[in-house]
Amino acid sequence: MARSIGRLSPTRLERFATCPFRYFAEEVLKILPADDVVEGEDLSPREIGKLMHSLLERLYGRLAARDLHPDHLGAELAQAMTDVAAEFERQAHLPLRGVLRARFAEIVRAVEAFAAFDLATLGDWEPVWFEERATVPFAELVLAGQLDRIDRHRGTGALRVVDYKRRFGLHWQTALATQARRGEKLQAPLYLRLAPAVAARHGVAGAVATQAVFQFVEDYLRGDPEVDEIREERLVRVFTAEESDACRDDVEQAVATFARFIRDGWFFIHVADGQGGHCTRCDFGSICRKNYGRLRRKPERMPALTRYWEIVRP
C-alpha cells in the first residue's frame, strides 16, 4: 500500500538520494543520530549548527534595522551573542561554561569574520528575510523548505538565496549542477523555486531568484577572503538561475522518482563505503547490514529500482 509522504524538503530528498535506508531510519522511524560527545562536555555538531544559524539570524536582523552598516557589527554581534546564549541555556537546560563557552566563542569569531567580509561586499544586495519557510508545487508534489536568508537587489529587485554551511568539504568540489542532476544536492535549484514564494508572502509579487549562494562560515577564520582563488574554492559556492534552467528537467525527474519510491516504501541500502563515501560518515552503518553481500548487491540488480541507480550513478 502506498504511503502518504506529505511535504518533501530538499534536505529530505537529498537524504533519500544518498541512501534510502538512511532516509527510512531518520524520516520514517525518527531515529536520532547518536552524538559523539558526552552531554555537558562539549557541543554536538547539531548544537553547533543551531547556534551558528541562530546567531546569524539574530545578527543580520539587528543589522538590517541599522542599514547594514559595518560599523555596527561589533555592538550588534555582542547583543546577538548574549540573546542566543541565553536562549540556548534556557532551551537546553545546559549552561555555557568552560569548554562549552569556549566552543561558543569559536562560533562567534567565525560569524564575526564572515559577517565582516559579507557586509563589506554586499554591494547592491540587501538581506531582507531570515529563516523563512515556504511551500511551492513542484513535479506534482508539494515542496517545502526553510531558507536561511534571502537578499534583494536594490536595483533590479532580483532575489538571492544565502545558505549557511559550517565548512567546505570534498563533496562540494563537484559542480553543483552535476550533483543536482544526481539528486545529491537539490537545495540550490529548489531554493530558487521557494524564494519567490517568500517574497510574495511579504507583498513582493513577480520577484525572480537569480542565485543560490552557499557560505562556509567557519572557513572564514581559516582562509583569506581577499584572495579570489581561496575564496572561490573554500568559502563560497554559487549556483545561478541559468544553471538551474539547464538541469531543470533532470531535477524534476529525480524529485518525482524519489517521491514515488518513498511513497511505495522502497528503503533499500545504497552502499558507498570507499574513501570519502557516505557510509564512512553515516550514523546508521551499524544497523543497515551493508556488509551482508546479498543485501548489498540485491538492490542494484532489481529492475524495479533501475531508475534510482540511473539517477544517482549516471
Q: Estimate the mean pLDDT confidence.
A: 90
Q: What Rg is obtained from the alpha carbons, in whole angstroms?
A: 21 Å
**What gap, in angstroms, lies between the N and C termini?**
30 Å
List unreliable stretches of 5+ residues: none
Secondary-structure-based class equals: alpha+beta
Strand content: 5-15%
> How many strands appear in the DSSP assignment?
5
Q: What profile does the largest beta sheet have?
A: 5 strands, mixed
Overall 3D geometry? globular
Secondary structure tally, helices: 12
Name the helicity range.
40-55%
Order of helices and strands: HHHHHEEEHHEHEHHHH
Strand order of the main beta sheet, please? 1-2-3-4-5
Can you offer a commentary on this structure?
With 314 residues, this protein is of the alpha+beta class. Among the domains are: 45-120; 125-250, no CATH class. Helix content is 47%, strand content 15%. It contains twelve helices and five strands. The chain has helices at 10-18, 20-28, 45-64, 73-92, 99-120, 176-181, 187-201, 228-235, 241-246, 248-264, 293-301, 306-312, and strands spanning 125-138, 141-153, 159-165, 209-216, 236-240. Strands 1-2-3-4-5 form a five-stranded mixed β-sheet. Strand 2 (141-153) and strand 3 (159-165) form a beta hairpin. Helix 1 (10-18) packs across helix 2 (20-28). The longest helix has 22 residues, at 99-120. The chain is globular. The mean pLDDT is 90.
